[in-house]
Structure formats: structure tokens, C-alpha cells
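[Automated response] Your request has been received and processed.

Submitted sequence:
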Amino acid sequence: MPGKQALPQPDAARVALWSAFSELFLDTDISADTHRFVARQIIESGSPPETVLQVLWLEVFPALCDNLRVVAGEWAGFNDEWLSERVASIAAGQASAYAPFALVTVNQVIKAIETQWELCAACLPASYRDLRRPSNQQIKRVGVIGRVTARD
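Generated structure:
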């Protein structure tokens, strides 16, 4: 699809970020321990704050958003190989990110993940807390393939 590009082969640090952020998309209660774990993984990745936000909102969010939009989403954890393939297929335009209909809207999931991100960012240096995430429209554009997008 024009305008879609495959991600470069991810390094171990990026895969670790995907895996850490995936914890925020499980159909479970998220604890302060999880927020600290995600923050630790972010620091250990050595990624700049701007990259971290891109990974969360433009790579992991489109790949896993629908898990929080269904009745019984994944709760035990995502396999790193599956997660890597899912992120890559959406980035390349080979898979759609958002189901057209679900019990919860994409905007509601954005708000929920924004809250979780703020709790993670509270465990990080100020440079992570001061950044603005992409707009809802930017987030929702990723992973939409030639069809009506998920309802707002």
C-alpha cells in the first residue's frame, strides 16, 4: 500500500520496549509494579524519549489496541515473536489494526493507555513526562487499510 513502509529489523532494545508496553494492553488490572517495570525497560533500552513515545503510540498501540476492545482479551501475555510480526505487518500495511466494530472505541482505549503511560512516566525522568503524544487522528491512521476506520 502506498505510504506504508516496513519497519527496519528491530534491535533487541526495541523488541524489549514492545514487550514492556504490551503489558499495558493486557486484559488485567495494571499495578504499580507494572508501571515501574515498564519504566525500567524504557531506561534500559537507552531510547530517547521521542522514540519511546513513537514506539508506544505508533507501533504497539495499533498492534494491540483491539485486545482492549473485545469482551475477553489476552490476559496472560503476548509472545515476543507474535508481537514482532504483528507490529511489522501493521507498519507494512499488510494487516489492519482496528476492528470496525467493538465494545470499546479506539478513543476510549487511547484515553486508558494515556492514563497508564502517565503512571509509567511518573517513574521516569522529566524529559519523558514533558512530551506530547501523537494526536488521536495520527494514532488511528496507522494500520487502517482501505476501509472505514474504527468508530471514534
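Summary generated for your ticket: Residues 12-141 form one domain. Confidence is low (pLDDT under 50) at residues 146-152.
If you did not submit this request, please reply to this message.
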